[in-house]
């Protein structure tokens, strides 16, 4: 007992020491972190300075990031904000000898608001700045910066903050919280891509065509261009990617005043998916050539005609078309395998036959659902895909070619994976084939999708124009039609009993059926050649040779040699098969080849706003409408173009004698800020009527409609009815 108490006391003491040691370590870590303020909270955004290192090494480069973290659905802006907005600005206050570089801007996204397009960042963004550090440092280094930004949702709110950070001098140590995050941002920054030859043509002063070699884009996709400066392009105009003359072209509208621009066209070219080098965004600087002859884009596809089928007729067509699909050449090789399976199991139990038929049908159904679901999802996302889209991928084509080649080798007798299973009892044999039945259904569907049987075309045309639920119902009918003959056969023992009895002839038939599989592989190789060229065919054929040698070695020595030889043969087979598959895989290079905008209110008689002008107009008995706006405000520009500049609205203003004024808050203006405060607002847009009587200002919503403004005009200009006037 005494020893036990002694041990318990020792354990308690050990726990006490460990606990206090951990506390000391945590406190030491906290002390070692750089002294920095918590994130500064402003309207709808948190901002702070974050360093990549907890200390500064003399003569090095220190990376500091301005972290902007707006609320959900709010955004900030890139260095060129587009049609409206304002770029974030940082003014550094550094000790003597320190030198801050420019902001390193991450790739922006396009933010569409009605007829406008802006460039910015949804959610958190880190703006990196590299600071050159002198060789002589004090023990503690203060780093200060003044940041100015614009954060927008339906309204836009400018903000600013003075931020500070203090770091000790010493060997650099990665910041435990921010170092990895900053490196991730740095790795994703756009940069120049070696060998990316981009040419810019200006056609007739109205359109830009950026052209680059087809090899620069390994996969079919789209391009998007973000200019460094304003005045080059129409931001909201659509940008069209197309291929012509062996090149990839990006076509979009030029700005109205583009003829006044000089120098190369610079900016970011963003690819989705990535360029050949693996980067999504590339910094380009392309000399401009003027040309009237440019590669024409492919003609726009006509709008699909509306199907005249009803759902019942479409389902019937789909079922019949699915059944006929079994007779198409692309499906026949797999059909032969399935029929041979029925012959092999013709003497099995009825339950076994039904199981095989149902599992084959389930494989067809699941594969149809999967392919149809992916197709509908991609079409909903804007992709122009059709039935059989998976065979548009060289990777899928190569994989299927290898699969059918291996199946053909098996049916030719080169190897037998199921040799031991074939020696077992019939019931066990039947069970071992259940997985084969399901996979046969899957494979049959994969190779059937390029085919369109009679009645199928009308049913598919109906399906892709309907809702997802209706479309999936039609695809289900198609799958059931394709699986129906086998399911019916499996549930009809009398029909199966009429098949020839199993015997030696089956081995001959099995080997004969291998040749359609070889032809299927040849067809897939041809498809691959049409997609990516002869080099990919050569690689695939070499890979098939290795794979064939591997399975030959496996089959040659799996049952006639000693265990040591069998083991060596299996190892050689694995190496050859894996090596062949890797070599046959299509290669990546072979698959497919801020200044704020000025306010422009050109319609109507808009006057500059001032408090004195509003008072003077009211004293004259005139109603005043004030547009509190800014060039960087997206909603402001949208409302101006879509509503305020409409002729009907301007006519109503004139008819009612309303004076229209613009309070331009593009630059900071204390008077406008005070006016907004008096209205209970902190950002623009704000639309308000000041009537000449004693009524309170009449505010309109931030997002305008024509009827809202017209009703507001009528309300603001309607005289107040007093008791005297009622009498």
Explain the overall architecture.
Helix 4 packs antiparallel against helix 9 (434-448). The chain is built from 21 helices and 25 strands. It is an alpha+beta fold and 727 residues long. The protein has a 5-stranded antiparallel β-sheet. The model is unreliable at 1-9, 20-33, 299-306, 382-386, 418-432, 589-598 and 722-727 (pLDDT under 50). It folds into 5 domains: 1-32; 36-187, Sandwich (Immunoglobulin-like), CATH 2.60.40.1250; 199-291, Immunoglobulin-like (Sandwich); 311-506, no CATH class; 606-726, 3-Layer(aba) Sandwich (Glutaredoxin).
SSE arrangement:
Elements: H1 2-32, E1 35-36, E2 40-42, E3 45-51, E4 61-70, E5 75-82, E6 89-93, E7 99-100, E8 109-113, E9 116-122, E10 125-132, E11 140-152, E12 156-168, H2 179-187, E13 199-203, E14 207-213, E15 222-227, E16 240-244, E17 247-253, E18 265-272, E19 281-286, E20 288-291, H3 311-325, H4 332-344, H5 350-380, H6 394-411, H7 419-422, H8 426-432, H9 434-448, H10 456-463, H11 468-490, H12 493-497, H13 505-532, H14 534-557, H15 563-584, E21 606-608, H16 611-619, E22 624-629, H17 634-644, H18 647-655, E23 659-664, H19 670-678, E24 686-690, E25 698-700, H20 706-717, H21 723-726
Parallel strand pairs: 13-20, 21-23, 22-23
Antiparallel strand pairs: 1-12, 2-3, 3-4, 4-10, 5-9, 6-11, 7-10, 8-9, 11-12, 13-14, 14-17, 15-18, 16-17, 18-19, 22-24, 24-25
Helix pairs in contact: 3-10, 3-11, 4-9, 4-13, 5-9, 5-11, 6-13, 6-14, 10-11, 13-14, 14-15, 18-20
């Amino acid at each position: 007992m005494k020893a036990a108490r002694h041990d318990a006391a020792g354990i308690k003491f050990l726990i006490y020491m460990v606990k206090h040691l951990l506390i000391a370590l945590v406190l030491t870590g906290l002390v070692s972190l750089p002294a920095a303020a918590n994130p500064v909270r402003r309207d709808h955004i948190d901002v702070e300075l974050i360093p990549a290192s907890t200390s500064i090494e003399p003569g090095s480069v220190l990376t500091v990031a301005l972290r902007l973290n707006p609320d959900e659905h709010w955004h900030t802006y890139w260095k060129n904000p587009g049609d409206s907005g304002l770029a974030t600005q940082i003014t550094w206050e550094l000790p003597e000898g320190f030198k801050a570089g420019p902001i390193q801007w991450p790739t922006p996204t396009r933010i569409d608001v009605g007829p406008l397009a802006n460039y910015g960042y949804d959610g958190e963004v880190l703006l990196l700045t590299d600071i050159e550090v002198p060789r002589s440092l004090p023990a503690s280094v203060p780093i200060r910066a003044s940041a100015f930004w614009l954060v927008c949702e339906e309204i836009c709110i400018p903000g600013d903050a003075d931020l500070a950070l203090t770091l000790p001098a010493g060997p650099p140590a990665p910041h435990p919280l921010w170092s990895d995050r900053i490196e991730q941002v740095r790795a994703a920054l756009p940069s120049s891509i070696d060998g990316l030859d981009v040419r810019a043509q200006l056609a007739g002063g109205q359109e830009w065509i950026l052209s680059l070699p087809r090899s620069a884009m390994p996969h079919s996709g789209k391009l998007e261009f973000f200019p460094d400066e304003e005045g080059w392009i129409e931001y909201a105009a659509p940008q069209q990617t197309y291929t012509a003359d062996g090149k990839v072209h990006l076509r979009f509208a030029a700005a109205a005043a583009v003829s006044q621009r000089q120098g190369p066209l610079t900016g970011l070219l963003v690819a989705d998916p990535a360029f050949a080098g693996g980067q999504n965004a590339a910094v380009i600087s392309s000399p401009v050539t003027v040309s009237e002859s440019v590669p024409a884009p492919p003609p726009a596809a006509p709008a699909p005609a509306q199907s005249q089928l009803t759902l019942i007729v479409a389902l019937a067509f789909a079922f019949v078309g699915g059944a006929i699909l079994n007779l198409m050449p692309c499906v026949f090789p797999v059909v032969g395998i399935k029929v041979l399976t029925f012959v092999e199991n013709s003497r099995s139990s009825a339950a076994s036959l039904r199981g095989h038929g149902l599992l084959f049908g389930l494989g067809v159904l699941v594969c149809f659902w999967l392919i149809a679901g992916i197709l509908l999802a991609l079409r909903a996302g804007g992709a122009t895909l059709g039935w059989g889209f998976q065979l548009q991928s060289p990777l899928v084509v190569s994989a299927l070619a290898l699969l059918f080649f291996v199946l053909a080798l098996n049916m030719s007798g080169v190897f037998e994976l199921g040799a031991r299973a074939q020696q077992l009892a019939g019931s066990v044999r039947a069970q071992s084939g259940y997985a084969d039945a399901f996979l046969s259904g899957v494979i049959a569907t994969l190779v059937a999708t390029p085919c369109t049987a009679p009645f199928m075309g009308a049913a598919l045309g109906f399906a892709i124009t309907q809702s997802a639920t209706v479309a999936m119902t039609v695809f289900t009918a198609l799958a059931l039609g394709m699986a129906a003959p086998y399911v019916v056969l499996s549930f009809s023992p009398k029909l199966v009993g009429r098949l020839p009895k199993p015997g030696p002839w089956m081995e001959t038939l099995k080997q004969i059926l291998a040749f359609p599989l070889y032809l299927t592989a040849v067809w897939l190789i041809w498809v691959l050649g049409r997609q990516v060229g002869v080099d990919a065919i050569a690689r695939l054929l070499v890979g098939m040779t290795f794979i064939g040698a591997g399975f030959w070695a496996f089959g040659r020595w799996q049952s006639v040699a000693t265990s040591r030889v069998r083991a060596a043969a299996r190892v050689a087979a694995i190496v050859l098969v894996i090596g062949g598959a890797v070599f046959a895989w299509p290669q990546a290079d072979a698959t497919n080849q801020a200044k704020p905008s000025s306010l422009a209110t050109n319609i109507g008689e808009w006057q500059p706003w001032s408090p004195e002008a509003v008072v003077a107009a009211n004293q004259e008995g005139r109603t005043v409408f004030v547009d509190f706006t800014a060039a960087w405000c997206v909603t402001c520009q949208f409302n101006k173009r879509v509503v305020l500049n409409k002729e009907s609205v301007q006519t109503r203003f004139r008819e009612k004698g309303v004076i229209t004024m613009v309070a331009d808050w593009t630059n900071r203006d204390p008077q406008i800020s005070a006016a907004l405060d008096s209205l209970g607002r902190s950002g623009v847009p704000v639309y308000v009527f000041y009537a000449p009587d004693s009524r309170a200002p009449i505010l309109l919503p931030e997002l305008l409609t024509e009827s809202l403004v017209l009703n507001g005009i009528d309300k603001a200009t309607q005289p107040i009815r007093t008791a005297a006037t009622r009498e």
